[in-house]
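Chapter summary example.
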Amino acid sequence: MDYRRTYRSAAIAFADLVSRIPPAALDGPGLGEWTLRDLLGHTVSSALRQVPTVLADRAPTLLVPAPEAYFALALLAPADLVAAARKASTDDARATGVTLGDDPADAVSGYIGKATAALAGAGDDDLVATPAGGMRVADWLPTRTFELVVHASDAAVAAGLPIAFDHDTLASTAALAARTAVAVGQGVPTLRALTGRAPLPTSFSVV
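The structure predicted for these 207 residues follows.
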C-alpha cells in the first residue's frame, strides 16, 4: 500500500469530519478525560503539526526499524515514563485545542497543507528523528496515519457523526495494530479474538 496516499486519505477524512462538528459539541465529552476540543487538539498535534518538524530533523542512525516497533517501545516503556508522557500529551492536547479556535476546520486544513507539502519533499528512506529514535520516513509516517484514523474515529463517536475511510487506509491501520500486538507478545490472544475463539482481556490495547 502507498503510505503517502493512505496518510493523505486519512487526513482528508479527518478534515471532513471536523467540518461537520457543531461548535456547541467542542466542549462536550471527547475521549476519557478529554473534551472533544482536546481530542481534536491531540490529533492535530500528533498527526499533522509535527510532521513538517520531524521530516526536517534528520537522524544519524536507524534505531526503530518498523512502525510496530515505534508503538511497542511506547507500550513497553517504564511506567513512570509512560505516565509522564501521558500527562505531557494531555497538556499539549488542551493547549492545541485552544489554538484551533472557533473554526477548527480551517485550522485543520492549514495543518494538512503544511504536512503534505513537507511529505512531498521527503524520501522514503530518509532517516528522521522521532520521539522514539531514528526512523525511515516510510516507517514513521504510517504511525501518523494510525493516529489520524484512530482519533478521527474517536471524534466521530464523540460527536455522534459518521466517518468513512477508504479500504487501503483502514486495512493498513488495522494491520499495524495487529503487528503491534505481535511485537508486544499479544499476537495469539489477538488472533484468537479476531477469529472468534476468545474475547480479549478487559482494557486490552496495543497503544
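To summarize the output: The longest helix spans residues 137-159.
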